[in-house]
Specification:
Shape: globular
Radius of gyration: 19 Å
Low-confidence stretches: none
Distance between the termini: 24 Å
Strand content: 15-25%
Order of helices and strands: EEEHEEHEHHHHEHEHEEHH
Number of helices: 10
Number of strands: 10
Helix content: 25-40%
Length: 264
């Protein structure tokens, strides 16, 4: 699905934000990116989708090198990549359904976008996407009347409407309460395991990464210092990322990760 080779990025007047980072993602994986503040997590996600231009390395997504490809090739690749941010990035005065349909606006003539004239098949597909995140009952409510957790699930429905194959989620639950955060991560994990989507998700909450991810990438000072299956994560591995890491947190998270039926 995606492989990154020797990726590097240095901002003007600063130390290296990314230094020789390499990894591969397989289809259907939920991969958590951990690291202290300033480790390079957001820079990594932004470089993959080329919101920032890396200084060196390769980003190969389905056969296209995103680091060096043409604008047209980048647009084609981005059509299959969705980003989910902490701020939700919804149009607050638009309905949940209208925000969901925004995932396909690049395929709609400009005049239709201006007049909100969506094809009937799009409306049906949008309602189905909202149904997949259990929000069909709020399809016609304005986004600013939804809870934070509901808004983030609308953002995920938008990615489904886009027919994305790779979701890049940058701290998607940082502003949510614990119950909503777990609901969003459970949804992302379900989409990976049931529908074959690939998710690369940066998180600050280690316990959530250990509960929901299949694999963990650890960044420290711009370097990839950990790449391991989540089941193999032990406190000594956490030490490589954070310096010190409590054994109790690993044990507690593993207990929380005991298989339980998904609601999605």
């Amino acid at each position: 699905m995606l492989y990154v080779e020797h990726l590097s990025k240095t901002y003007a007047g600063e130390r290296e934000s990314l230094r020789d980072v390499s990894f591969r993602l397989a289809r259907g994986q939920f991969v958590a990116v951990l690291g202290p503040s300033g480790a390079g997590k957001s820079t990594l996600l932004r470089a993959i989708v080329r919101q920032i231009q890396p200084d060196g390395g390769r980003i190969n997504f389905q056969g296209i090198d995103l680091a060096t490809c043409s604008t047209r090739e980048l647009q084609q690749a981005r059509a299959h990549m969705a980003t989910i941010a902490q701020q939700f990035n919804l149009v607050r005065r638009r309905t949940a359904l209208e925000n969901c349909l925004a995932g396909r606006l690049q395929d709609l003539p400009f005049w239709r976008c201006c007049l909100n004239r969506f094809p009937d098949e799009w409306l049906r597909a949008g309602l189905l996407a909202l149904g997949r995140v259990q929000l069909q009952d709020v399809a016609f409510q304005r986004a600013d009347r939804l809870s934070g957790g509901q808004q983030q699930r609308v953002a995920i429905a938008r990615a489904l409407m886009q027919r994305a194959r790779l979701i890049l989620a940058d701290e998607p639950v940082a502003s949510l309460d614990p119950a909503s955060a777990r609901r969003v991560l459970e949804l992302l994990r379900s989409l990976c395991h049931r529908e074959g989507l690939t998710v690369l998700c940066s998180l600050h909450q280690v316990e959530l990464a250990l509960t929901y991810s299949d694999r963990i990438l650890g960044l420290r000072d711009g370097q990839l210092v950990v790449d391991c299956p989540t089941r193999e994560f032990v406190p000594e591995i956490g030490d490589r990322i954070y310096g010190t890491f409590p054994a109790l947190e690993v044990a507690t998270s593993r207990n929380n990760a005991v298989a339980r039926p998904s609601e999605f």
